[in-house]
Amino acid sequence: MTIDWWTLGLQTINVVVLVWLLARFLFRPVSRIIAERQAAAQSALDAAKAAQAEAEAARAQAKSEAAEQASARVAQLAQAQEAAKQESARLLTKAHNEVAALRAQTEAEIAKEREAAQTQMAREAGVLASDIAARLLSRLPEGARIDGFVPGLVEAVRKLPEPTREALLAQGKLALRAARAPSAEETTRIEAQLSEALGGPVTVELSVDESLLAGLELDAATAVVRNHLRADLDRIKAEVTQDD
To answer: Among 114, 193, 207, 238, whose CB has the most other CB atoms within 10 angstroms?
Structure first.
């Protein structure tokens, strides 16, 4: 078999040229296009991943903000409920205090009115008792209306301070009121007992005052000595009717 080297060489050259042409004008552009497409796809994929990551971050932030807002609303609601509770307690306490103050004021007014009524009743009872006693004592025997009160008057004069007794003695004549007009004997006896109490002679100028009911009253510039039923009744009446 004879080999045609010339033909074989031409075929080889053709193959080489074809390969070169394909590599030059087909494979390289295709490879570049593929690489560019791959780069574009990768860039788009990266952009998509970045967008997805950004979306995930935005969703997470929105979720966190929503949770924070929900927590803030819960806290505000709890704070509002606590404030309402405190205000309700304050108003309830205030109402209780006002009711207690009103009750205390009412009780104080009732007690005051009761005390005033009791005082008025005691005063009226004292006045009535004094009037009854005065009417009863006005029925004393005539002798008892003076004689029974002379010793008490004399004893009261004897207990006066010495300067006062000296002034009465120096006066000489003493004004004496009596529940009734004394007899001459009674007048003499009164003057004698007063003279003995003062340590010197004195006389009396008698006047009648039936309002005394029974007893005597010595009136002088330096002393007033009372020993009669009207003074006793007035004192008792004052003690009974005085306010506490």
So the answer is: 193
Q: At what angle do helices 150-158 and 184-198 cross, to 10 degrees?
A: 20
CA atoms of 83 and 223, how far apart (whole Å): 78
pTM, 2 dp? 0.43
**Cα-based angle 181, 131, 211 (whole degrees, multiple of 5):** 20
One-letter amino acid identity for 111?
Answer: A
Highest mean pLDDT among 14-28, 30-44, 71-85, 128-142: 71-85
Residue 41 C-beta-side C-alpha neighbours within 13 Å: 6
Q: DSSP string spanning 34-53? A: HHHHHHHHHHHHHHHHHHHH
Q: What is the pLDDT of residues 130-188, one digit of tens each?
A: 555 555 555 555 556 787 888 889 999 999 999 999 998 888 898 999 888 888 898 99
Own/partner pairs for 222-225, CB < 8 Å, 24+ apart?
A: 222/164, 222/167, 222/168, 222/171, 223/160, 223/164, 223/167, 223/168, 225/153, 225/156, 225/157, 225/160
Please, which residues bridge with residue 219 across strands?
175, 224
Contact 219, 204 (CB under 8 A): no
Distant-in-sequence, close-in-space partners of 167: CB < 8 Å, separation ≥ 6: 220, 221, 222, 223
Tokens standing for residue 35: 């690489």
Q: Which of 147, 138, 154, 151 is nearest to 225 (CA)?
A: 154
> Smallest Cα–Cα separation from 116: which of 243, 207, 227?
243
Q: How far apart are CA 80 and CA 82, in angstroms?
A: 5
